[in-house]
Amino acid sequence: xxxxxMNKFIETLETLSYGLKPCKPINKxxxxxxxRYYEYFMHQIDVKVKxxxxxxxxxxxxxxxxxxxxxxxxxxxxxxxxxxxxxxLYGDVVIALDTEMEKHMELIDSKxxxxxxxxxxxxxxxKAARSDAGKFKKLDETGIMMRxxxxxxxxxxxxxxxxxxxxxxxxxxxxxxxxxxxxxxxMVDEMKPFLGRxxxxxxxxxxxxxxxxxxxxxxxxxxxxxxxxxxSKMSRYGSxxxxxxxxxxxxHLTSAILFWNExxxxxxxxxxxxxxxxxxxxxxISKNQLETDMEKHKFxxxxxxxxxxxxxxxxxxxxxT
Length: 321
Fold this sequence. Notes:
It contains eleven helices and six strands. The protein is an alpha/beta fold. The strands form two sheets. It has a four-stranded mixed β-sheet, sandwiched between helices. A two-stranded antiparallel ribbon has the order 2-3. Helix 6 crosses helix 11. The longest helix has 30 residues. The radius of gyration is 24 Å and the shape is globular.
């Protein structure tokens, strides 16, 4: 039930203060607003006093290899929700303003109208970029789009590899946008499309050859599914956010994201040490497997780029048919 944690916390405070003066019931609305302002005040201390930026991964700073973008439909907001008419404290610290998003979408739609068809990736059963507005008619906010780096920190910085679950559909569309809007062309030219390794399993075979990072130089052990880890936590807020007002929902999710990033940053040293150890082990395993396969199939190392090129050409031909 939404608000259960806060209600139980207030009940505990009232029990602990029983018999003390003054002993009065705690107003839930006042308590919620006080908590909201306290969190924002602590954020201001981090930004203006400690000069911290909890929207940036310090391990990726300036050299971000990959970033996984994904949407979460569980963090919606109902049309029927009235909420309290408040103004957002955080604004666009993490989440883009609705007015900016609407302006951006109108600009794109003016030259590239969105498709109304239901499309799939090849002949697979995987629904890619499906347009189905009917199921959202009762929602004021249909969800949220986030992006995180390889260390699981939600960010807004640029990257070398842009990872996605339906990158095969998105990248063709992104290139069309870049051709129509020159201001977006540098972003497309500087990034490489990367289809997440796990989601790729339900795409057609040629899609896996063309887009999966496993075949791409410098992608290393990038999984391209990092945002799923973030959503495993963020989705829990859905039972509350769907009943919140517009500003309260924005501040609640912003505060949750900033807290998540801060906790990930605290454990980043141990995480990097474990990753280094795992990468060194994987290098040896992959090296042994490569030597075994080369001996089994009678291949030389120099032949692999040629084979990969032939495989990519076959995938391109199959995609165009």
